[in-house]
């Protein structure tokens, strides 16, 4: 764990060493000041020479300036080290998110995932900067101060040291409680994110149901529990801060009494006395530092654990070793004994056998939940078959590189996901290196040109988050334009027009038919009018494929399909 953490320092070795050396030097100067005061009082003052005293002060000023510079370096370059590590980790986790499969996203909440890439990594960055350095400096000043105290007066040093275990005990007791508390707080922040993410994302639903009060109550509960956890943390912090202040002062008092006694006995100079008192401060300061490390460390480590857990989540769908770049596919699709279930307990598809010739249009009909979408999701390997195989042009899809396979399959679904940018950007998502003329052409073929011409901003019109500023039909046309640009060999239309009114649907059917030209097309539809012309219709239900054939044949047979046909279009 720690070794893995430190491996992130490797690329920034130079920065780390620079920061570290400056911090060590600054720590040593801090240690030097009490000794300077001792010399000042014991040696310089008795000479009664103002010039000497001023000269010494000037020397001290120079050291102060140096230390100020060092501190600036430590704060800036040290944080740069932290942010560099944080940036690298953020890049890695975002990269990894791109590789994880649909199944992973089925089972994880967006809010938690966002927290991982943002909040978690911020905490890690803090620890990455402060943790090791602070700890080292703390230990260094602790030991250094003790040696100097011993040098000034051994008896007094021993008395002071005797109190250390007590202070350490108090500190560690609070530290452990603090750790537990921070971990609890962590979970609460994640819950929070999820709650807000879902609420804001689903605001249209919330308001449509007039369920704002319900949402407020749920949020109030999370908010209150967050407050309580945080208050607990502050209570512990208050106790620990005041206790450490108290013990600090008590120690000072003890040292003052014992020190005064020694001065009166002539065993300690007054400079030594003052210097020693200052050293006591330096001696106990690291305990505060260690305290703050104890506070940030668990946060960082909890974040780092979650970060590594994410990175260690093996993508369950990835290129096989030896996978080949898919050749330009013709689109002969074959399902062989395909069995698949989302969970181990229940198979959604059992022993599916299906052949689709290149260039054909195959329609799937059947009740909702029969597994039509699932069947099509297996083709681009959004999910992996449990047994059996799917081949395209005789090649197992698992033997092709994912990107080269998916690059040749296009999907238009019922709800189109648009990104928050412009119409142009959303069309260009189909092929990122498309030229302006290609985008215009794709928009024309999707019959979007009229709409675009009517908009003052044209292609540069912002579609709003997820495309809220467009109508259902317009969004669907945008998805079709995107698909013209992508120009896939295999096309999946999953209830692409189901959400539209009949008039709009009819218009869009036209574009879809043009899009399907010359491609192997899998159509899922519940309005039978839209699939009458398919080369073959496959009727599925929970048991699997019930019957298949062209429209006329199935109607004539008078089986399941003809009974479906009874539903009005
Ligand atoms: P259809 O498209 O025919 O309406 P689906 O393929 O969407 O049916 O769903 C088939 C079955 O699989 C349903 O019982 C559904 O509840 C289940 N299912 C669909 N998607 C998931 C998923 N991501 N995780 C778990 N179960 C799912
Ligand atoms: Mg479906």
Automatic annotation (TrEMBL):
Domain ABC transporter: 333-567
Protein source organism: Mesorhizobium alhagi CCNWXJ12-2
Membrane topology per record: Multi-pass membrane protein
Cellular component terms per the entry's GO annotation: plasma membrane
Lineage, uppermost ranks: Bacteria, Pseudomonadati, Pseudomonadota, Alphaproteobacteria, Hyphomicrobiales
Record-annotated ABC transmembrane type-1 domain positions: 17-299
One MF term in the entry's GO annotations: ABC-type oligopeptide transporter activity
SMART domains: AAA
Family: Belongs to the ABC transporter superfamily.
Classification via InterPro entries: AAA+_ATPase (IPR003593), ABC1_TM_dom (IPR011527), ABC1_TM_sf (IPR036640), ABC_transporter-like_ATP-bd (IPR003439), ABC_transporter-like_CS (IPR017871), P-loop_NTPase (IPR027417), Type_1_exporter (IPR039421)
Bilayer-spanning residue ranges: 12-29, 49-77, 135-152
Family matches, as Gene3D superfamilies: ABC transporter type 1, transmembrane domain (1.20.1560.10), P-loop containing nucleotide triphosphate hydrolases (3.40.50.300)
Keyword vocabulary terms for this entry: ATP-binding, Membrane, Nucleotide-binding, Transmembrane, Transmembrane helix, Transport
Protein name: ABC transporter related protein
CDD domains for the chain: ABC_6TM_YwjA_like, ABCC_MsbA
Subcellular location: Cell membrane
